[in-house]
Amino acid sequence: MRAGRIVHALGLAGLAMAFGTLPAAAQSTLDAVKKRGQLNCGINGQLPGFSAKASQGWAGLDVDMCRAVAAAVLGDGAKVNFVPLTAQQRFDELQAGKVDVLARNSTITLQRDVGTGADFAGVNFYDGQSFAVSKKIGVTAPSGLASSKICVVKGTTHEANMVNWFRARRYTVQPLPFDTADTMYDAFFASRCAAMTQDATALASALAARNKQADYIVLPQLISREPLGPYVRRGDDQWTDVVRWSFQAMLAAEELGLTKDAVAAERQSADPEVRQLLGAIPGNGKALGLEEDWAYNIIRQVGNYGESFDRNLGARSPLKLERGQNALASKGGLMYPLPMR
Question: What is the pTM of this model?
């Protein structure tokens, strides 16, 4: 090869490494996780209901997403190193290889999916942006906050959403940005702004965690669609598949009525759909590069999606949220498990 071509080839290789586009075989996350024996999972860490420290360790819907992947890959959902990340850090740390998957209540948008070197692997929660206000100010709709100071977290989609929503209605608003959600909450409860804006469930979580539900409310009107889901590095299709189908296994389990406590008995089911999901009919595991009991391990150790929602956000949680659009499609929601075959 001529010298000029060598330099050109090396230059292309360097660009490929920089943008995460080398073939999966050259940077297999699945192989790295198996060799390490532990999944590094990026989370929020300060958002009860999604990811926060509880009496028995980390808990939340996103925490369960991490554990589901670990159960699928390593056979043990406890083999997770949880890495709390700020909104500003999250995609940089994912791209740098500090975490294998990002499960940090992150909205899926076009520019994030094509401009951060990351791919989303599904939607594990449908949310929307709203505002929390003190009941004393008497505001019942976002329009009542026109010209007000509103607290918001830097590095999120919320600031642009808010400004654009008010501008489209010929109102003005004064964003007051903060580096972290906790500093935003402190400022809001210290009356430095008339409202704070975030995903509606995050606001409800903040009020519940601080015992503020008697004096503050989350406005019912949503100003955006915020589909949340896990992200992985671009260029490793096999790993994207593993994360995507780990979540799909939880959805499929709910639709099939398979629960954490009773799934062991279902391994002898006569239903071919159940048998294929649980690995009694082989093929899915081999396709993903996993053991055939990968989905069984998820359900036995983490549970189905409905169980995860219920204990983290729903009736068995302090938030008591309705399933709403996060119910299965068969029950009027948006969650639709893909065929597990």
Answer: 0.86
